[in-house]
């Protein structure tokens, strides 16, 4: 929810004046989908572990239960792939929306002929990139 993040922009008309702008975009849905699927996967893994260890005879005697377990596992694997791709796309959108050059381009104070604007430091996105690789 980048639209909730404010940042200050200097206003050249008044020496000490500044305007508050907000970032653009809401990329929370892919992250929420990724985290929700992770929580459900963890809960299913714990339930399956209890089933395997505590009710082993029920699992080995019933022929439909292992097949149902296999189908649920395949569904989780597919949705995990979809969620990882959605999180990767959401992260690339966040990186594009917060790129220093695009933020400077949106500032009207930097559009003048005599204005010299620079971004300073480039944000570190290494840990965010690693979260997609996992």
From TrEMBL:
Pfam families: MARVEL. It comes from the Eukaryota. GO terms for cellular component: synaptic vesicle membrane. The chain crosses the membrane at residues 33-55, 67-87. Keywords: Glycoprotein, Membrane, Transmembrane, Transmembrane helix. It is found in: Membrane. It is a multi-pass membrane protein. Residues 1-134 form the MARVEL domain. InterPro entries: Marvel (IPR008253), Synaptophysin/porin (IPR001285). Belongs to the synaptophysin/synaptobrevin family. This is SYPL2 protein.
